Amino acid sequence: MRITRVLSNTLPALGLALGLTLGPAVTSAAADSTPSASPSGDSSAPTEAGTSFRTATEIDQGQTATASGSAGDYLYWSFPADSGQRPTVKATVKLPQTHTAQTWQVDVYDGLRRRQACQYGAQTRTAAAAATSVELACVLRTVRAWAEPWANDPLPGTYYVRLTALDLKAGDLGLPVNAELRVDSKDIGGAAAVDGSLAKPLVPGIAVKSEEKKDDSSATAVLSSIEPDDGWASGWWSDRWVWTAIGAILAALAGIGGYTLTRGSGRPRNVPPTA
Question: Alpha-carbon torsion 143, 134, 57, 44, what sign?
Fold first, then answer.
């Protein structure tokens, strides 16, 4: 009976505490985990690609960029990625009617030109002679808010995508191809939080846009004209604080329940106190 009474007293408080703390976190996680998709036929989506890091075409996450080129060309795009995001790069190459077997590859580099490894996905694929298209994918590691200087971890900033064919035969060089590229991200949240942050996003260097100063006509390098919808969020806050608070509340409730169960019923009313 005592256990039943204690549980009936503590469970409503536990449910209320979990509802108050989990409600905003679960709602935020559900909203962040769904990638934002641009509407079909978005006129703002780029229709061309750059030919080097310096001329890479900027795209936003959720956009489907298209480009026309020739087999053997290097096609470059750039996109922003913030801490806690796990970007997924998908590319589709539409091949001409007549061609030999071709091998296509998509590579992703950070702002310091460091090639980023793919966790999984078909980064390199060979299209048979009868194939009309080839699809590539690269799921990057989660972007960290901070890392050691010697580490090759992905950091917040601009990332570059390079799409090209490998070891083409002479007869395939110059054949027209059409490419589509799309970048989406999954928000990992506090599971990827680290004890540190960058003061500013990772600067990609000279391969960025330039903006004119007000006082003269000279140009200065800027990070990117595209940034995440909520701005660069590298900082001390993450939803891991919410789960820390939940753990503290559960520990307090467990302590109260344990004390209530073990303290005993006390001195009966009909027993006088001892001298």
Answer: negative
